[in-house]
Amino acid sequence: xxxxxxxxxxxxxxxxxxxxxxxxxxxxxxxxxxxxxxxxxxxxxxxxxxxxxxxxxxxxxxxxxxxxxxxxxxxxxxxxxxxxxxxxxxxxxxxxxxxxxxxxxxxxxxxxxxxxxxxxxxxxxxxxxxxxxxxxxxxxxxxxxxxxxxxxxxxxxxxxxxxxxxxxxxxxxxxxxxxx
Length: 180
Hints:
This protein is mostly helical. The protein has nine helices and no strands. Helix 4 (46-73) packs antiparallel against helix 6 (87-101).
């Protein structure tokens, strides 16, 4: 961001990264599910795993939709909290917050399924989702989208990356293991 858009954009980058950091709250439902999922997995109780993960998924979806909607509708709240006062930067930061927060459900899915894969001894899938969502997909989207649409393309790429990462892992699972 600094190399292509200047150091003046650092507070805007900070706003986008804050949105990504806020998504750490979505580890809560996964952490709450962990003891039960691990026990049920050890017992071979797929019904119990499904029930716990369904509750965790519903909790995460409700929280991510609510938080994402709040940030998309009221991004100025976050820019004020971060102390961004320059009117030009406030507008840019609001765009960054909106575009990044649009991927809030994807961030929640990454957190939940990353943990789930670890709980059921699928470490490779957990690592794959982490690398995809945290590095490969954002970088591969940010570069071309930033070139095409400027700084707004970078923020849009950050919002799209977690969703695309989940889609890629789901497609890989479907191809590798079938529909079941």
